[in-house]
Specification:
Blueprint: E1 2-11, E2 16-19, H1 24-39, E3 47-49, E4 63-68, E5 80-85, E6 88-93, H2 96-111, E7 114-115, E8 118-128, E9 134-140, H3 148-160, E10 165-169, E11 171-172, E12 175-176, H4 185-188, E13 192-193, E14 207-208, H5 213-225, E15 229-236, H6 241-246, H7 274-290, E16 295-299, H8 306-310, H9 312-321, H10 326-343, E17 347-351, E18 364-369, H11 372-379, E19 384-389, H12 414-418, H13 429-432, E20 435-442, H14 450-457, H15 460-469, H16 477-493, H17 509-517
Parallel strand pairs: 2-3, 2-4, 4-6, 9-10, 9-20, 10-15, 15-16, 16-17, 17-18, 18-19, 19-20
Antiparallel strand pairs: 1-8, 5-6, 5-8, 7-8, 11-12, 13-14
The protein binds 2-acetamido-2-deoxy-beta-D-glucopyranose (NAG).
């Protein structure tokens, strides 16, 4: 709900942030807000405890009140009420994340209208809360690894888009990226691959790297301060070649492959035996100690069963358990680890293949093969996160313009992301409640650098943010495009390399210049 009023609020060096004494949530959010504004060249605003209204003769002496209030008029957690009037902005919410999102909205209003270190926001009354609780982005750090700084930049942007879940894809055939103290070979061997032309024509002799546990703890804390939960993924039983290259005794054949240096679906699976499950449980102990998330992602996708089908030991095990096929064996495998997570107060989430042989009831399903998995998961009694290929796969190129970077075809335009509806039409309300939310997935086979990654994510992330926050009935492509021009300006000021090519129609030169300097409000077409 948005009501426009007369007048505007000026925020500048004379503005103070006000929080109630002992409102620690308000205090944290006030400091976070001051940081957000300072990053845009704004003043670092003093935070004062005490709500008493000061003399406000001069416009420069405006105040911003940030306050927890159990009676705030919001109907869900993470919601907020923001009142902007000349001289004062007031953010109230029932929980800290609500205060944070109110602060983000105020930041958006102010940064649309900046002159030097003074910002202006129109007078307005807003009551706002998200449509979905899971508003996510998946980053694949296995195919190409990002620096900690880059992950933090993405987290900053996620927070400013009111996204709250980073799904971190940390292991795959091409690399194992998380330090596990008990099994050092996972990163000594598994974190490195030899490119096909290693050492020739400037190709690296080896590609790789990993995140240390100290780095991960820092990233988790960085995310927490921005109200983002990181859900780690260890992919299994397939996409496991880097792990099998490190510890062949936990593979099916005992043979040691190299860490894969090309893309596609590889045959190496974890073995389906107690030793291997024990190894994975030990790995999960360290993972759970690092990541406090309710969910732990155990993959489950694209595990082609050739090695299990060819192994006499695995076949004997299936017969002994009375299992009819290898899908049921995968289900047994995932079920054992799901139970382990459950015993530790966590929940399994996995790609929609986990439905094939059945999966524990408290597991959530991440539906990626189109959208068919959504209703299947719901009918089987599971919560579901909507993350469909191709609609929300940001590894597809976003334009057919000739300045688009190389990547996967066909084109997934900004508009096609924006017009994707998270909840299938006609789903009865009690079933729709099973939809936790949605996320976009950034697979990085074709993204060797930070610039590639940012190009793929921005501005499509704006479309993702809106379809998970705003009710479907209020989404409007034309309105989105109009608002986007201010957002592109913010990206430029934050040095974010969004894709100009997202605008499928070549923007003519004068408009491009206007965009580049940020001097004009342009209407974008797509
Ligand atoms: C799928 C794979 C993924 C790959 C991506 C793009 C899932 C769940 N699995 O084939 O490993 O990177 O598409 O090529 O998406």
């Amino acid at each position: 709900k948005v009501d426009q009023h007369q007048g505007q609020l000026l925020v500048g060096p004379g503005t103070t942030l006000r929080v109630a004494p002992s409102d620690t949530a308000g205090l944290r959010v006030a400091h976070a807000f001051s940081d957000m504004l300072a990053r845009m060249g704004g003043p670092s605003l003093p935070v004062v405890e005490g709500l008493a209204t000061p003399e406000r003769a001069a416009a420069g002496a405006s105040i911003i009140v940030i306050r927890l209030d159990a009676n705030a008029r919001v109907t869900s957690s993470e919601g907020y009420v923001l009142d902007v009037s000349p001289g004062e902005a007031r953010i109230v919410a029932r929980d800290e994340s609500g205060l944070y999102y109110g602060a983000v909205t105020l930041w958006q209003l102010l940064t649309a209208n900046q002159k030097g270190s003074t910002f202006a926001a129109p007078a307005v009354h807003i009551e706002d809360w998200p449509q979905f609780a899971w508003r996510g982005l998946m980053i694949d750090s296995a195919r190409h690894k990002q620096s900690v700084e880059e992950i933090e930049r993405i987290l900053d942007q996620m927070a400013l888009h009111k996204l709250n879940t980073l799904h971190w894809h940390l292991t795959d055939d091409q690399g194992w990226r998380i330090e596990i103290k008990r099994y050092p070979e996972l990163t000594r061997i598994g974190a490195w691959r030899t490119p096909p032309d290693a050492g020739k024509n400037g190709e690296l002799a080896r590609y790789g790297g990993y995140y240390t546990q100290d780095q991960i703890r820092a990233v988790v804390a960085y995310a927490q301060a921005r109200h983002i939960t990181i859900v780690p993924e260890l992919d299994m039983p397939g996409h496991a070649q880097a792990a099998v290259a490190s510890y062949p005794q936990f593979g099916v054949t005992g043979e040691r492959p190299t860490v894969s240096a090309d893309w596609g679906i590889n045959p190496y699976l974890y073995n389906a035996d107690d030793n291997t499950l024990h190894f994975l449980q030990n790995v999960l102990d360290e993972v759970m100690a690092l990541f406090p998330s309710r969910y732990i992602h155990l993959g489950g996708d694209e595990a082609i069963k050739d090695q299990w089908n060819a192994s006499p030991a695995v076949q004997a095990k299936m017969r002994a358990f009375g299992l009819k096929n290898a899908e049921q064996l995968q289900s047994w495998f995932m079920g054992r680890l799901g139970q382990y997570l459950h015993d530790h107060g966590r929940h399994l989430i996995g790609w929609d293949e986990i439905l094939e042989g059945g999966v524990p009831g408290d597991a959530a399903v991440m539906s990626w093969r189109g959208t068919s998995g959504v209703e299947k998961a719901i009918h089987a009694g599971h919560d579901v996160v909507v993350a469909p290929d191709p609609y929300l796969y940001l590894d597809y190129v976003q334009s057919s313009r000739d300045d688009e970077t190389a990547g996967r075809l066909p084109v997934r335009s900004l508009q096609s992301v924006y017009t994707f509806r998270v909840a299938p039409k006609g789903l009865p309300p009690q079933q729709a409640q099973r939809i936790l939310g949605a996320q976009a997935n950034v697979w990085t086979e074709h993204m060797p650098s930070d610039a590639h990654l940012q190009h793929a994510i921005f501005p499509r992330l704006d479309a993702v943010a809106e379809i998970v926050w705003t009710p479907a009935g209020e989404q409007n492509w034309q309105s989105f495009l109009t608002r986007l021009s201010g957002q592109l300006d913010r990206y430029r000021r934050q040095d974010i390399h969004y894709a100009d090519s997202a605008f499928a129609v070549n923007i003519d030169v004068s408009r491009q210049q206007a965009l580049a300097t940020g001097t004009t409000t342009v209407t974008l077409s797509n």
